Amino acid sequence: MAAYLIRRLWQMVPTLVGVVLLVFFLFKYFGGDPAEILGGLNANPEQIAAIRQQLGLDRPVWEQLGIFVWQILTFDWGTSWATQEPVAQMFASRLPATLTVMVPILVLEVLLAIPLALAVAYVRGSLVDRTIMVVTTVALSISFLVYVIVGQWLFGFRLGWFPVQGWSDSFATNLLTYAPLPVLLAVLVSLAPQTRLYRTFFLDEIGQDYVRTARAKGLSERTVLLKHVLRNAMIPILTNVATGLPGIFVGSFLIEVFFSIPGLGREVLLAVNRSDYPVIQAVTIYLAVITMLINLLTDLLYKVVDPRVVLK
Question: Distances from the Cα of 281 to the Cαs of 1, 75, 87, 127, in angstroms?
Answer without folding.
Answer: 34, 12, 10, 51
